[in-house]
Amino acid sequence: xxxxxxxxxxxxxxxxxxxxxxxxxxxxxxxxxxxxxxxxxxxxxxxxxxxxxxxxxxxxxxxxxxxxxxxxxxxxxxxxxxxxxxxxxxxxxxxxxxxxxxxxxxxxxxxxxxxxxxxxxxxxxxxxxxxxxxxxxxxxxxxxxxxxxxxxxxxxxxxxxxxxxxxxxxxxxxxxxxxxxxxxxxxxxxxxxxxxxxxxxxxxxxxxxxxxxxxxxxxxxxxxxxxxxxxxxxxxxxxxxxxxxxxxxxxxxxxxxxxxxxxxxxxxxxxxxxxxxxxxxxxxxxxxxxxxxxxxxxxxxxxxxxxxxxxxxxxxxxxxxxxxxxxxxxxxxxxxxxxx
Amino acid sequence: xxxxxxxxxxxxxxxxxxxxxxxxxxxxxxxxxxxxxxxxxxxxxxxxxxxxxxxxxxxxxxxxxxxxxxxxxxxxxxxxxxxxxxxxxxxxxxxxxxxxxxxxxxxxxxxxxxxxxxxxxxxxxxxxxxxxxxxxxxxxxxxxxxxxxxxxxxxxxxxxxxxxxxxxxxxxxxxxxxxxxxxxxxxxxxxxxxxxxxxxxxxxxxxxxxxxxxxxxxxxxxxxxxxxxxxxxxxxxxxxxxxxxxxxxxxxxxxxxxxxxxxxxxxxxxxxxxxxxxxxxxxxxxxxxxxxxxxxxxxxxxxxxxxxxxxxxxxxxxxxxxxxxxxxxxxxxxxxxxxx
Lengths: 340, 340
Known about the structure:
29% helix; seven-stranded mixed β-sheet; alpha+beta; CATH 3.30.1330.10; Phosphoribosyl-aminoimidazole Synthetase, Chain A, domain 2; 2 domains; homodimer; 8 helices; globular
């Protein structure tokens, strides 16, 4: 135990002994990466199976506040990258984690973040195998930013993606929408909102594997993060050249979230989620997919919210409870900054 | 062409149309990643060769200034990750790139950075296959931070690392030391130094492959970034339990760099390099390694700077030009913040 500092200083990013102590005690003691070189060296039999493909993805996380009901930036950083792998049908294997820390950041906060990262990685069944730490001066960052990159393996025979969506597919989500966005908004405390909301942040690797096993005809899936369900559906429908018809009455929304959105003039379809995916599958496999998803805690609220049609007009439309229809467009401008 | 903005705004990070335009026009138009999913899906025959291993590494880059003689943050971000792969004997294959952009950052600057990234990736023979963009408010970042992660393949039979270093190994560097650190220092302009210095920033993948082919007994290599040659050697010597004896007269140093260090009370052995590696190999293969390195521009200045002994006292010592000896310790505290 040689790290006696309470706060991160510029010396912790300088390449010398202080940096080595910070990395050893706060990061590698918890993550326990293999070997001691700057690169992890890895093998996995699934990767050399004929027809298997490697999946590779990255995300930076800049959420504010760093800790919020239901998670922290570390949990987001693991789940976000796990989910980007999972929705492509990949089994997550390994993660990298790079930290840009603002001078003055509390080391105790870093330790808490690292602990949640290790916990989420274990839940997802993967390892954090390599990393990096940089320090920037006070006022040139904001606490800590984390960038994770993930490697997964797509087994032979799995080939899903927006281009595979067909007219007649059922559109399924795994639970209530917008909790993450609403929670962050409430946690910022600059609104007189006190809601008992908790972020939906969760890893969806096991859920996606279960859905694929039960409904092998799944055509595509995506996690509904920044820009919410509406943005994910618009991108996917545009690529598949179909129209997604949502039914308002079927959208799973908490009254607290709907209420908050009404007060603030927001639309819950654009609120960020960090543990929600939207999935397309042939109508005759929808029940099987739903049953498999509902058997897992992160899919307990799984439900069909609409279906796809041959493209007619806009990529995404909503049938309202009153029988009308409206276009659900891409988000224009910003809704909530730094939500993930 | 729908992106008419001059500067990045918070909307460019919001998950909607502005973000899509920024990503499409500034990033994916240049990087041309495969497919349109959030994850890249990749195959490479070398990865499924029996005995091959996957190498995985990441680094964040926070250098200031963002552009400097000899490169910019984008060139650093590619070369840094390529070099972390290369020094382990891996052939770099794929890179991810994640950007944390400060509100107000000039889009023209981003375009220049992205162009140098594409150019360096092509030189290194690899592809930037996936990425991410986040935007933070003015005063919560500093222009742009870039995090790259890299995947490479270590061919069967290659297994190098600090633990393999043996007493009697020759210690080789590929050129003059400290140019990157000195260049950044001069480029900050807060010193009345005007030196015609250029960063050594360069990808070392081809150099490392050539050295390994010529001298298969190479035991270990490392790139000498933050903390400089001295820190890299201390870490490696400690792990191998040997003493590295450097000869001062053989250290390749530019007079301008030595002069700047004398004025500022710095030691060039601790200055950061971004295109320099230190390599250990059996003495009887040193000439072959040198010849192979000198045949490439990035190895033109390759030279032997010392050798290893059974551990006697400190991990790294320096025989001075006057016949004395001094200990070369780990860097204590910080030398130059945000050098990479």
